[in-house]
Amino acid sequence: MRLAAYVALLRDNPAFARLYAAQLVTFAGEWFATVALLGLVLDLTGSAAAASLVLVLQTGGFALTAPIAGVLADRLDRRRLLVVANLARMPLPLVFLLVGGPDTLWLLFVVVALLAAGAATFEPTSSASLPNLVARERLAEANVLIGSAWGAMLAVGSALGGLVAASLGRDAVFVINALAFAGSAALIAGIRRPLQEARHGQASVGFAEAARAAIGFARGHRLVGAFLLSKTTFGFGTGIVALLAVFGAEVFEAGDAGIALLFAARGLGAVTGPFAARALLGTEDRGLLVGIGASLLAVVLCYGLFPLAPAIGIAALLVFGAHLGGGAQWTLSTLGLQRATPDALRGRLFSFDYTLVTLTITVSTLAAGLIADAVSPAASVWTMVGLVALAATAWGAFAYPLLGRLATSRDG
Question: What kind of architecture, by CATH, is found in domain 7-192+206-405?
Answer without folding.
Answer: Up-down Bundle (1.20)
